[in-house]
């Protein structure tokens, strides 16, 4: 298989570049046609690789790409999940090259979706092609690649509930996470949940002249800024009553085990051009971005933001606020707590509306499962060292849903890096990482088939 991968390396990369040229932005209806184009591109490539039943399943939103290869019903089945939609590329002016015109520089592919998640999803397509060519596929495989992950997977749960027989499997594998470093492989064992809201603060019934009305009526932008500032105390502790009531507190031994993972604070600060880090008192940087909940403003706007000056008091101000959650917090409970608190801290001079968006539950996956052991063995085969189990600060809400609906654990075997700038300008994915994924995934199938048989 190694020879086939090496011989076809350039083709694999060129095919990924073709996929990256499709601006499949799910958050913007203007890109709807491109979203559909990306879905069909993957359907075609799965079919060409040797998959059966390659098709698009319609949903109330974007279609789900499905394909399978059932070689023997008595063998275990791997379900591969990925997503073909991408984040908006704005602000375009901060990209060194156009986000949907991929370029290769310093052995990295620069484009929106290069790592999250087109590059990582496409590793699985090419790994499957490699196994089919070599006639070494050791078990059954199903693919489910959606087009709404970046907008909350709003229709995926319905699809899963309605197609449990179609999706029957023994393990789910997702490559939408990362590794600690190219020479420090890791397998993600935990994800944070998410509670996302938009807030609207309204003062006067129209924009007002700031000279005639300034000081006499509440300025919604000023009020919103004060409300947001009050959501953290001097120790960067979130002030919403009840917010921490169900937070899973790790033991000193568990925290010490986490601290063994390689991490350089100086390199971290240098990579982000920071003079110092910031976060909840009493926790390390690695703990703050993985095992602790957070609250962040993702966007804030209101009033006049054009060129020059316009002296107005805006009628409305808006913000988007997200909270990352940890076991055993519930996104529904946290959403209720946030809404109640945010409304309660508003002065009577304004009106507040809190609009919940999407959410998801935190999850910890077992390191004792056949799936985790297979991923660890596969990575050890290709990297030459055992991977480190790590908890990620990111959220993949569908992992908890898969467990509840399909009764199956998920293996989070990602090949990206924290430095890949996902969701940011100049997102990229290393060619090393792309090819290493294609090399490792077939070994995961082999080890899982063997371990499942022993179980």
TrEMBL record:
CDD domains: M20_dipept_like (cd05680). One of its GO terms (biological process) is proteolysis. Keywords: Hydrolase, Metal-binding, Protease. One of its GO terms (molecular function) is metal ion binding. InterPro entries: Cyt/Met_Dipeptidase, Peptidase_M20, Peptidase_M20_dimer. Residues 198-348 form the Peptidase M20 dimerisation domain. It holds the Pfam family Peptidase_M20. Gene3D superfamilies: 3.30.70.360, Zn peptidases. SUPFAM superfamilies: Zn-dependent exopeptidases. This is Peptidase dimerization domain protein. It comes from Rufibacter radiotolerans.
